[in-house]
Amino acid sequence: MRVLCFILLLCTAPTLWGQGRFTSLMNSLEAAIVDQPGLDGTVELSVSGTPVTEFVRGLGVTHQLNITIDPAVKGEVVNNFTNARVVDVLMFLCKRYDLDVEFIGSIIVLKPFVPEAPPEEPPPPPRTLSITYDADSALVDMDLRRDTLSAVARTISQNTGANVVLAPGLENKLVSVFIQRATLPSAMEKLAFANSLTVERTKDGTYQLRGEVEASPKQTDRNARGTPGATAGNFEVALRDGDRVVVDAHNIPMEQIISKASTLLDQDFFLYDAMDRSTTLHLSSVSSRVVGPPVEGTEFTHRVSEGIHLIGKRDLEGLRATEIVRLHHRPVKDVLAAIPEGIKKNITISEFVELNGIVLSGDALRIEEVKTFLRTIDQVVPVVMIEVMLVDVNRSHPIYRYQSGLGRRADHDRRYRPSGSGLQPEQFLHQ
Questions:
Q1: Angle 217-218-224 (CA atoms, 0-180°, nearest 5)?
Q2: Which of 163, 254, 372, 418 is a good FRET partner for 145, with 20 to 30 A between their CA atoms?
Q3: Are 318 and 272 in contact (CB under 8 A)?
Q4: d(CA 258, CA 294)
């Protein structure tokens, strides 16, 4: 019974409110008779197909009333009025054409009725967002259910310390997602994916959220370079600590891995050739060398020039390099024979004797392997010096002694010879 009464009240409320409005208009017109006596006059009039604006103008002329009607009021009057008061005729027009009456001094204005806008309901109290961040493990939990994106971005920034910026027009977008125990870069990617957004991380670690149609030109260009069918297999690339990349790929085209990693690191790359190879790898935390592991052991190579990663086949111009490696602890002669054949493949190696060096020309990665080997063998070699003294003794050689001097004759000189094996050298020295 109570429900039925409530329904009847809702249905009759507009009618009752309209009756109250017309009662108020009638009272206003009755009160205006004091200043506008013509309102109390009687009308004897029969019309058919007369525009309502012309009807009101004629009514004002006949009864000397300052009355006007808004040109926006349209319609025709088809009525026969006999001994009707002017006030009653005006009330009939107000009800028939949903008009309102406004008094401006002595002027009566009829205009379309504009209902007052209902009062706005107060906004619901802000809900406490379920976003938690563990600083020790750097993992995020999110449980969002139709929450405004501006509130979500503010809470993420406050809890994690990473700034989140929204593209214009996304402040009131409602988002929903459930994420548990995920890194912040991975959580931001899943939040964007679940709500038809795109996320991009700048060099300073700020996350920028855009609508899918508002992707940045750089990201759009990079996505355009993706390989068709690259979604096969398991593939995840996430950013950690601002400049470290986590890659987990299983049978994924190398070009897709490099493109995704360069997007996250905000680094440019250029492909000389299409990379029609797939690879499987897991990198837990690497920097810009993420390009290296996929191309190593293949016919492709890469190098960095002015901040741009150049990737292509090893024999291409722009990817070749020429260097001279000088040896400091051993002569260059015969060093070429010591270099293993496996690392000399596709490299030109020649001696430069005048500089005691070796000239290397070819793939930069292969050159680096040869340089590492040369640095390994270019070591100081210990030298042992052995000093040998040879003494020759001949016991049969005679010893002679001669004496001579000034003022002495030669026949006084005496000459001694050894006289036997028992002769001692000291006796000659004392003679």
A1: 85
A2: 163
A3: yes
A4: 8
To which H or E segment does residue 284 belong?
A: strand 278-286
Query: Are the C-beta atoms of 224 and 277 separated by less than 8 Å?
Result: no
3-class secondary-structure state, position 371: helix
Residue length, the chain?
431
Q: How far apart are the C-alpha atoms of 274 and 227, rounded to whole Å?
A: 9
pTM > 0.85: yes or no: no
From 131-135, 167-171, 404-408, the region with the lowest mean pLDDT: 404-408
- Closest C-alpha to 290, from 252, 327, 259: 259
Q: Could you give the CA distance from residue 330 to residue 324 in angstroms, rounded to a whole number?
A: 16
Angle between helices 217-224 and 254-265 (to 10 degrees): 170
Q: Residues of 171-183 as b/e, b for ≥16 C-beta within 10 angstroms?
A: eebebebebeebb
CA quadruple 9, 12, 13, 17: dihedral, nearest 10:
-150
Q: How many CB atoms lie within 10 A of CB 235?
A: 17
The mean of the pLDDT values for the chain is: 75
**Partners of 178 in the β-ladder:** 143
- Fill in the amino acid letter for 339: I
Diameter of the chain measured on Cα atoms: 199
Quickly count: other Cβ atoms within 10 Å of residue 301's Cβ. Answer: 24
CB 273 within 8 Å of CB 258: no
Q: Does 424 or 319 have the greater pLDDT score?
A: 319
Number of H helices, E strands in the chain: 10, 22
47 Cα distance to chain centroid: 75
Looking at residue 404, what is its pLDDT?
52
Q: CB-based burial of residue 230 (10 Å sphere; 0-12 exposed, 13-18 middle, 19+ buried)?
A: middle
Pairing of strands 244-253, 197-201: unpaired
Cβ(185)–Cβ(240) below 8 Å: yes
388 vs 184: which has the higher pLDDT: 184
Taking alpha carbons only, the member of 278, 277, 272 closest to residue 315 is 272
Helix, coil or strand: residue 332? coil
Q: What is the DSSP letter of 324?
A: E
From the centroid of its chain, how far is CA 21?
60
| pLDDT band (50, 70, 90) for residue 361 | confident
Give pLDDT, residue 211. Answer: 82
Amino acid at site 236:
E
